Structures are given as C-alpha cells and as structure tokens.
Amino acid sequence: MNIQKLKSEEIFGLILGIVLSFIMFRLSFKMSEVLHFSNQIVIWVNTGFIVFFIIFGHYIVSRKVIDEKKRNEDIIGLKSNLLGFFLWFTVIIIVTLLNIEINRAAIMAGGY
C-alpha cells in the first residue's frame, strides 16, 4: 500500500468540504424545524450529501494543483455520488409515500 502525501491545498479542500457539509446539515435541520417536517427524507438529505461535499471541497480547492488522474477521480466521485444520492432519494420518497418506516441506519447505509 502506498502512502500518498497530500498537498496543503488538498487538505484545505477536504476541510472546506467538511465545513460545507456541516453548513448543509445545519440548514437542513433549521428548515425542518421551521416547517415542522422531519422524516426519513430529511434524514437522507442530511446524510446523503456528506461525501459529496467532501469530494466537492477537495476538487474546488485543489483542482489546479493535483494531477489529471486525481482530478478525474474527483469528477467521477462527484457524478457517482449524485447519481447514488438521487436514486436512493427516489426510493426513500416512494417508501415514505407507502407509509413504510425504515431504520435510520438502514437509510444511511442504503444510500452508500
């Protein structure tokens, strides 16, 4: 196994992604409190974008200093994460409309 040394821009990008994920998490909870709306859809919206924002932060900050291979991995990661998010989001909406409750852990694990 090779250990890769990350550049400072990459580390900053990962931290930015974590911060963006936290901001999205907080905004989603605030919105659900204001609307008095909390169910499995809110749980998935809160947790489904965590990996996306981490990859997004890494890509935005370090896209000019990383090599082409890492840049392509970030783009593929972003696309596949969005595809997975919306596929699982569709499943969660259908399940919610059918009044079927899913365990929180299953909601989070199912999307990833």
Automatic annotation (TrEMBL):
<feature type="transmembrane region" description="Helical">
    <location>
        <begin position="41"/>
        <end position="61"/>
    </location>
</feature>
<keyword id="KW-0812">Transmembrane</keyword>
<keyword id="KW-0472">Membrane</keyword>
<protein>
    <submittedName>
        <fullName>Uncharacterized protein</fullName>
    </submittedName>
</protein>
<feature type="transmembrane region" description="Helical">
    <location>
        <begin position="12"/>
        <end position="29"/>
    </location>
</feature>
<feature type="transmembrane region" description="Helical">
    <location>
        <begin position="82"/>
        <end position="100"/>
    </location>
</feature>
<keyword id="KW-1133">Transmembrane helix</keyword>
